[in-house]
Amino acid sequence: MIRRLDDRGAVTAEFAVVVPAALLVVMLAVATLVAAGTQVRLEHAAAQAARLSGRGEDAARARAAVDAAVPGASLALTAEGDLVCAVVTAGHGIPLPVTSLRARACALAGGG
Known about the structure:
Keywords: Membrane, Transmembrane, Transmembrane helix. This is TadE family protein. Residues 9-51 form the TadE-like domain. InterPro entries: Rv3655c/TadE, TadE-like_dom. The protein has helices at 10-54, 59-69, and strands at residues 74-80, 83-90, 101-108. By secondary structure, it is α+β, with helices and mostly antiparallel strands. The mean pLDDT is 87. The chain has one domain. The protein has two helices and three strands. Strands 1-2-3 form a three-stranded antiparallel sheet, with helices on one face. The longest helix has 45 residues, at 10-54.
């Protein structure tokens, strides 16, 4: 019996190589979209915390606003002259060694 060489199984082998790479690209794209959404929420939370602190609200109220927008995010409030600045930091969820997401916003102190 003579055995012929043909392309049988080539499609299966190519599929087995391409699918994991394609899945990795899709998963990273989804993680990036989630991180972008988190960044938008961080910016909103930082602005809200700065406004609340600028109005003279308690720091706990600003912390609650940040927790409502981005659970688990950290908040740092600082006074810079006539401004109250809020820095909100959170993880990004992307399985790569990149820095955390961060947003900073300032508001005029003593605003009513």
